[in-house]
Amino acid sequence: MSTGTTASVSTHILDTSVGRPAEGVAVRLSARPDRDADWRALGGSATDADGRCGDLPALPVGTTQVRLDFAVEPYFRERSANQQADAQQDAPANRDSGPAVFFPEVAVTFAVVPGEHYHVPLLLSPFGYSVYRGS
After folding, report:
1. 12 bridge partner residues
2. Backbone angles phi, psi at 79, to 5 degrees
3. Coil, helix or strand at residue 29
4. Model confidence at 16, in pLDDT bands (50, 70, 90)?
């Protein structure tokens, strides 16, 4: 999927706490030509039922660094609300009254070179996450 003139980016999110894709997570894409430049917001998307963003904007020519911002707090708040509704019969002492998510957002910054495709999956749980360069 290389364009020859710029890098391209894709991502998906897996909620490892339930073993399923994370649907409906907002993802913003930003880029800059070098590490001392300001970030330029390019737009965003939201994950589909498969946890993927199939429509992230193209990177400008000359991009050397990219940032993906994942807004995970709304996803976990909604999931937590659904779980609480399902658990109305539980005794109050068995309910978790803590925050729905420890990390309200995840920002991932990485370097790119022209012509390469970068797939950056996010493995997510309420109290941790990891990312890697996929294929």
Report:
1. 52
2. -65, -40
3. strand
4. very high
Cβ-contact 62, 33 below 8 angstroms: yes
Q: What number of other Cβ atoms are within 10 A of residue 63's Cβ?
A: 23
In 3-state terms, what secondary structure has residue 75? helix
Average pLDDT over residues 9-23: 96
Structure tokens at 102: 């420890």
Question: Of 125, 108, 101, which is closest to residue 10 (Cα–Cα)?
Answer: 108
> Both tokens of residue 84?
């609480």
Q: What is the per-residue pLDDT for 92?
A: 47
Q: What is the C-alpha separation between 122 and 74, in angstroms, rounded?
A: 16
Which two structure tokens, joined as six digits, stand for 91?
Answer: 């005794």
pLDDT digits (tens, 9 = 90+) for 19-35: 999 999 999 999 999 99
Q: Where are the domains of the chain?
A: 8-131
- Domain 8-131 matching CATH 3.40.630.10: the answer reads no
Q: How confident is the model at residue 91 (pLDDT cuts 50, 70, 90)?
A: very low
